[in-house]
Amino acid sequence: MAELFRRFGGGLGTLFLALVAVWLAGMVLAPNLTMIDYALRPNLPPAEIGGQRDVYSLDNILYLANESVHRAIFFKTVWASALVTFITLVVCYPIAFWLAQRATPGQAAVVILALTIPFWINEVLRTLAWYILLAFRGPLNALLLVIGIIDEPVRWYGDIGVLAGMTYAYILFMLFPIYNAIESLDRSQLEAARDLGASVWRTHWRIVIPHSKAGIATGCVFTFMLAAGSYVAPALLGSPGSRWFTEIIYNWFFEGGDWNRGAAYALVLLVLCLAVVLVTLKLARVNLTDVAK
Amino acid sequence: MSAADRILRALFGFYFAAFFIYLFAPLVIMAGATFNASRFPTITPWQGTTLQWFNALWADRGMWESLWTSIVVAFFVVLVSLPIGTAAALVLTSLHARARSVMYAVMVSPLLTPGVVVGIATLVLWRQIGVGGGIFLIVLAQSSFIICYVMLMVAARLQRFDRTQEEAAIGLGASRFMVFRRILLPFLRPALFAAGFLAILQSVENYNTTLFVRGFDTPLTVYIATKVRTGLTPAVNALALIMIVVTIAGAILYEVVRRRAQQRSSAV
């Protein structure tokens, strides 16, 4: 801290500290603490706030544990987000490996530029594209009918639609971290493995994957967090039978009118995501400093 | 090359092509549906080629209002995020190793928080003070994590900064403020430009956070999502097409400027 003042002088140093304090205390810490406060208090009419019944309890969180529909939706959100993470990982790995190790620099530059195009396009539009593609009378059903794979149009909206839309929306968050990690692998290691008779699988399992685990962990953490916290894909591509946990939270706020319960549910989502982040990074022995690059 | 290698290669080629079709087909279909006369946006069946949906979009007042809302929000997000993100990067780099890694974790934590939670937390805090959702809260909620991106980009550029320049200027009698304004800020300019661009993009594209703090204001993404539920016509596709073209043009411009800046700095 002394370094900051030595370098920029008292005025600027204080200004920088004040700006950072406004951000971290006012825009990050205070909102989250208030959310926790909300989550632990009961939903009371204005007259009773601060009264006898306004005490801290875990009721709102226990409500989630005991309400079987919400609980089921919560667990579905968790495993479906894990599934999205797994699918994107499996789909991206070969592409990332090719880009990082096999492609010529020219090829890689062109392909990466092409890949970034969908990445720049906004999430709502990417989801809208799938909404149109998967419509009951839409192009996908038309194509499958012509080829003869199906005899009748399929209703894609629902769990399948949500999974497809999420995989599509977040796939590049998986691709780029893995690509960055594999790129730093020295090619001679792969050649050595090959010369020593290692099979393709073994080379990947023992050399490429261990080398790129920081990238894989980063990709997984972000994809999981984005999927679990997504609202667009379930709202557009879901059906009444395929609700997502974020939709339940939204309903507590804007339809159920119980912000305390909504805050409690949001808190559960936050804790889930932080737990996944910490456990994944711990398992992969990755430092938080290596994430978000 | 052995037969097995050749098969593997062919398989990968096929996979690679499929991956690209998967990435682009939905976008191409969405864009193509703009020119179909069908009332629901699709390309099957093709009911005649038309430009009418651009006219419909042009006449849509709700779209213009939401576009304006998004522009205002993005403007203020940049205004808030650039100074704070830069300050955060400067504070971070002046810390010592251990404190720095703790501070770093704190500063990137908003990126690891689900967007809906960011929105909710902001909403409940400000309700305590009697402030409801609207442009003001959208700006605050979006900035709280967009600052992280600015911080990361500025910090990355700071790593290449040569501190002797500052010392030389001080030695020649410049004030600390002068050194900051005349040496450090110009050095950071490319990173600030890039961060500003990214901040605008992140702000305009945001949906999950914005949805919770928007109150009665309707930015562009919320407008599009509402249209999908209340009556989707290819006018929305026309909007999507325009946004895609603008985004790609912006991305290319961004790349060109970045590469030129890189060449210049490596030439020095």
From TrEMBL, chain A:
State where it is primarily located.
Answer: membrane
Per the record, its GO cellular-component terms are: plasma membrane
GO annotation, biological process: transmembrane transport
- List UniProt keywords, sorted A-Z: Cell membrane, Membrane, Transmembrane, Transmembrane helix, Transport
Report the superkingdom from the record. Answer: Bacteria
Q: Does the keyword Ribonucleoprotein apply?
A: no
Residues annotated as transmembrane: 12-33, 78-99, 105-121, 128-150, 156-179, 214-237, 262-284
The topology of this chain with respect to the membrane is: Multi-pass membrane protein
Q: Which residues form the ABC transmembrane type-1 domain?
A: 74-280
Q: Which residues form a coiled coil?
A: none
Q: Where in the cell is it found?
A: Cell membrane
Which InterPro entries does the record cross-reference, listed alphabetically?
A: MetI-like, MetI-like_sf
The entry's family comment says:
Belongs to the binding-protein-dependent transport system permease family. CysTW subfamily.
User: What is the protein name stated in its UniProt record?
Assistant: ABC transporter permease
Q: What is the lineage of its organism?
A: Bacteria, Pseudomonadati, Pseudomonadota, Alphaproteobacteria, Hyphomicrobiales
From TrEMBL, chain B:
User: What Pfam families does the record tag this protein with?
Assistant: BPD_transp_1
**GO biological process: one example:** transmembrane transport
Residues annotated as domain ABC transmembrane type-1: 67-254
Name recorded for this polypeptide: ABC transporter permease
Q: Does the keyword Membrane apply?
A: yes
Instruction: Please tell me one Gene Ontology term that the record gives under cellular component.
Output: plasma membrane
Please report the organism this UniProt entry assigns to the protein. Chelativorans petroleitrophicus
Membrane topology of the entry: Multi-pass membrane protein
InterPro entries xrefs: Bact_Polyamine_Transport, MetI-like, MetI-like_sf
Q: Which locations, inside or outside the cell, does it occupy?
A: Cell membrane
Main location (coarse class): membrane
